[in-house]
Specification:
The protein is mainly α. It contains 6 helices and 2 strands.
Length: 73
């Protein structure tokens, strides 16, 4: 899953450790989310969205196409 987490974090001048502390997760978790190696749980995704005052869809982008979109082609 693509995301804007690194961009949002760096715009605020936060380290991965600082963001992790605000979210109550490890720095390694923040790194894994930023690099796309780990997709956050739904509660964590909501917490991230609340922290940045954005909608989840403004931070995370699903890289897979919906089956309905493929059927319409």
């Amino acid at each position: 899953m693509k995301n804007q987490l690194r961009l949002l974090r760096t715009e605020r001048g936060w380290s991965q450790a600082a963001l992790a502390e605000r979210l109550g997760v490890s720095r390694q978790s923040v790194n894994a989310i930023e690099t796309g190696k780990y997709d956050p749980s739904l509660p964590l995704a909501f917490a991230i969205a609340r922290l940045f005052e954005l909608k989840i869809e403004e931070i995370f982008e699903d890289e897979t196409e919906a089956p309905d979109a493929l059927a319409a082609e």
